[in-house]
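call fold(seq) -> tokens
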Amino acid sequence: MDSHSWLLHICHTVITFVLSIGSYWSSFASKFQFQNVTKGLEWLPTGYYTIPVADELGFPGMKTPFHLGLLALEDTYCLASLALVVSLVYSIGTKHFSVYSKKRLTSLEILDLEKKIRHILSNKLGSSNCPSVSVHNILCPKSTKGEEAVELNVNIVEPGDGTKMLVDVTKHIGHLIRRGQLSTSDVTPDYIDKVLRERVQCPDPDMVLKFGSVPSTCGYLPWQLRLTEIISAPSLRDFGVHKLQAALKVFSKIEGRFGK
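ret:
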């Protein structure tokens, strides 16, 4: 098979499965207002410290997402609201998160998000029980060599990261084929998935919360989304405990068919 043919084969494999992504848009009600989200520590919702985190979201038959993706597609939003959602869902067992925004987060904003998550969990669980938290770009995972294991992992996904992953993997596969280290028959969806997992070091999201009126995922990890349940909400600003619980109930009731 010449170079043109195997390149077409690779592109066809990638495009076919990206286009097979299913979108499940669900809406849900109930209001939960935030107070003064831009001032000091007042960005925490009213009564937050009086509610046990582990009990407020739990319900019979609840299915906990292994990796929760958060898509902030509004023009403006508050990092404290993202920190609150991450902290609440961590309390029920989820340890992997990804955050995608239409605008790129600066290094200071990423650090601020990590500080807010630590602050919420420290106040709720106690400083001695606060988990180790890592917030970083998904393409630049932090090295944990010689450090304590990360208990809460938050990947920041920037616009274009998903496309860059697929382009890099396609180049890598093409390089292996040219060197005779890989056959075109070996280029399967499972193989591409394996290569992506090795590079990203993060499991695929099984649940995504999309905030905003944009009817699109705007390029957030197109390959990893192919089996993800996507639940939409009008806004992140008024998204609190009750709406989060409603979203988790929707997720728990969905039966994953995985293309069947």
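Helices lie at 3-18, 53-56, 79-90, 107-125, 161-178, 189-200, 241-253.
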